[in-house]
Amino acid sequence: MKELVKSGGLAIDLASAFDASPNPYVLLTPDLRIAGVNQAYLDITNSTRAAIVGRPLFAAFDSGPGEEAPENVRQVRASLERARDTCQRDHLALVKFSMARRLDDGREVFEDRYWSATHTPMLDDDTGEVIFILQHTTDITELQRLRERSAAPERVGALDAMLGGAVLGRAEQVQEDNRRLENERNRLIEMFMQAPGFVAVMNGPGHVFQMHNPAYAQLIGHRDIAGKPIRDALPELVGQGYYEFLDSVYSTGEPHEGRASRVQLQRTPGAPLESVYLNFVYQPIRDASGKVIGIFVQGHDVTEAMRSAERQKLMIDELNHRVKNTLATVQSIAMQTARSHADPKTFAEGFQARLLALSHTHDLLTRSHWEGADLSAILQHETEAHGSQRVSANGPLVALAPAAALSLGMIFHELATNAAKYGSLSAPDGRILVDWGLADQTRPRLELAWREIDGPPVQPPNRRGFGSRLIERSVRHDLAGEVELDYAQDGFVATFSIPLDTEQGR
After folding, report:
1. How many C-beta atoms surround the C-beta of residue 284 within 10 A?
2. What is the pLDDT of residue 8?
3. Is 332 exposed, middle or buried (0-12, 13-18, 19+ CB in 10 A)?
4. pLDDT per residue over 120-177, tens digit each?
């Protein structure tokens, strides 16, 4: 307002010209607060600058809870918001307000006055953002009253022609058309707001958020982004290419589409960035002349679909790996059993028993979706055929990874089979004691002892059979552990020391 303009050799102060205008003017911020007024506005509202500057324009018309604002207030607000949101001048042909007027005797009365209003957005030269809205009003009360006083139908046309009533009639028709357009616009916005995908409208080269729906708000953690350029509203996008995509769409007018595009967003205040996958389209918005004035954003969050696809691929890869490992185990069992059993009948019996032991452990792992199995459950599965009262288990809960579970299942099967044939389980009163614990909590190891008591005297084997070879190979090769087999005369003892690496053998 302090700017000076040269005119006919005279320097005119724009602020003085603004204040001297006989028509009321008010300058508003984008949130419709009064930033400045001229003297004519103060005169017709019987106000002072100190009383109204900084206050919401419609503060005097605030409705109570559950009450709607008067129709004239809704008309003016809608026109101002159109000017702000579209960055285009908006006209209000006719609106009625009751204004206070002080009589000569000091009494204050209210009278209906009719106004025509023009709302002009003022844009920032650099960002294209609306920084102010100028409201210019003209008092057309006398003209409207002259029209209303003409009751004879035959006189209306002539009077309208003399007084500009036809112009007013056309203006009122335009205003009614604008109301219908506003209703259609509101219905369209309602559709956007209820859309299952995220929607946003950005304005100008700075990509200022004009509107966004709840799905978009949820995507970005319900931040306050209205009226902000995207670089201020979503600063974490720097370096991810999305600013550049928007700039390109605005400058070229060509849409941009992203499929399963990875973006890192801050979903909650102060939280670390989260990876989100989006299908989206940036579509240019053009004005009547074809110039790009904004960008329409529409898309869907496909993060869960991407994660499901990744999990499915991981499961398929894991299944392939497990099938290969299982087939290799079956092949090894077949070869080792064949070496130890020349007779086909005994081979079939031994081979079938070992496959059943393998399937028992598979059953346990399947119940846990192959996330692992408990040591005591595996031990119980492989020894329950010999009677639960004959095998005493003592140790803490130990969750085994799938590979370790399979290997220990086979080991327990071989130990139980050997005990039933030659060891303590071959005698009526023989028993087995299995004790285990965890050592070195930083890099935990399973320490387990299998002891056979009250069985027949133990005779050390003349040669290493398949069972002992399978045990030693499983512990040292598959589990990267250590094993000691002691054929003491009063009872066989096997001790194991196995590292518990949850990723081992996957």
Report:
1. 18
2. 47
3. middle
4. 999 988 888 899 999 988 877 766 666 665 544 544 444 444 444 444 555 566 666 6
For the chain, residues with pLDDT lower than 50 are: 1-11, 63, 151-152, 154-167, 502-506
- Neighbour-count burial for 10-39, b at 16+ CB within 10 Å, e otherwise: eeeeeeeebbeeeebbbbbbbebebebbbe
| H or E stretch at 19 | helix 14-20
Q: Is the dihedral of CA 353, 335, 415, 345 positive or negative?
A: positive
What's the DSSP call for residue 477? I
For 427, the token pair is: 């005698």
Residue 193: the pLDDT is: 74
Q: What is the DSSP string of 185-231?
A: HHHHHHHHHH-SSEEEEEETTTTEEEEE-HHHHHHTTS---TT-BHH
Give the CA angle between residues 190, 196, 201 to the nearest 5°. Answer: 55
Nearest C-alpha neighbor of 120 from the set 104, 96, 136, 107:
136
Residues 6+ apart with CB under 8 A from 17: none
Q: How far apart are the first and last CA of the chain?
A: 75
Query: Longest C-alpha distance within the chain, in Å?
Result: 133
Q: Which pLDDT score, from 0 to 100, does residue 309 have?
A: 79
Sheet bearing 491-499, strands edge to edge: 391-394, 431-439, 445-453, 491-499, 482-488
